[in-house]
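[step 3/7] fold_predict: job queued, chain A
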Amino acid sequence: MTSTVRGSQLARLLGHWHALPGRRRNPDYAALAGAIRGLLADGRLPLGYGSRPSGS
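[step 4/7] structure written:
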């Protein structure tokens, strides 16, 4: 069975994930993907977690 994480929980875990402005700024989707990879790599977001559909 896959566990779920609410959007508010994921937002709290992610913190400030936006790329800093600069000459070589990554697109927001790439910065978000990197932040999620970081959560998975350090164990704060275990593998097998999914997000709940909105309205659940």
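[step 5/7] annotate
The chain has a mean pLDDT of 79.
The CA atoms of residues 18 and 28 lie 6 Å apart.
exit 0
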